[in-house]
Design a protein that fits this description.
Blueprint: E1 24-25, E2 32-33, E3 40-46, E4 49-55, H1 58-75, E5 79-82, E6 86-92, E7 102-109, H2 117-138, E8 142-149
Parallel strand pairs: 7-8
Antiparallel strand pairs: 1-2, 3-4, 5-6, 6-7
Length: 150
């Protein structure tokens, strides 16, 4: 989804938007940014197909998660929140799907991200924590894994 063509400059970095650098619209809040400042490019699996989303911030990523958790409760489908260098995944435990345990998997590739580890953790840990708390509140059984590539 592309952003408003009237937006001439990225509100985050100030880079000029034009033919080669079109604005990208956040699917949650509707704000437009350049591709580099659209922090999360997320794919979800819906009805067996990959669907791609642009999300501008950790708050919007969390809202996307909440919307898809409602969808998975209704359709019992797989959720996958996956950025290019970081991943937060929620999926049926393939070893024993019949008992309804979900796996939360957080993957961080620190080599590929242009930020400090401290900044990254401050962005991702609240999202991960909110997902955990939301699952607990709903009574969903889950396991967790964390992987950090340095």
């Amino acid at each position: 989804m592309r952003g408003d063509p009237k937006v001439k400059y990225c509100p985050r970095c100030g880079s000029k938007l034009g033919f080669f650098s079109k604005p990208v619209k956040c699917e949650i809040c509707g704000r437009a940014f350049c591709m580099a400042c659209s922090e999360f490019r997320v794919n979800t699996i819906e009805r067996g197909r990959d669907v791609y989303h642009n999300v501008c911030s950790s708050e919007c990523l969390l809202e996307l998660y909440r919307r898809y958790l409602q969808s998975i409760e209704q359709d019992k489908e797989l959720i996958l929140l996956n950025g290019s260098n970081t991943s937060i995944m929620l999926y049926d435990d393939v070893d024993n799907p019949s008992i309804g345990i979900y796996m939360i998997y957080l993957k961080v590739n620190l080599r590929e991200i242009n930020t400090t580890e401290e900044n990254l953790i401050s962005e991702l840990v609240p999202i991960y924590g909110a997902i955990r708390e939301d699952l607990k509140r709903r009574g969903v059984r889950f396991k967790e894994e964390f992987e950090s590539i340095v």
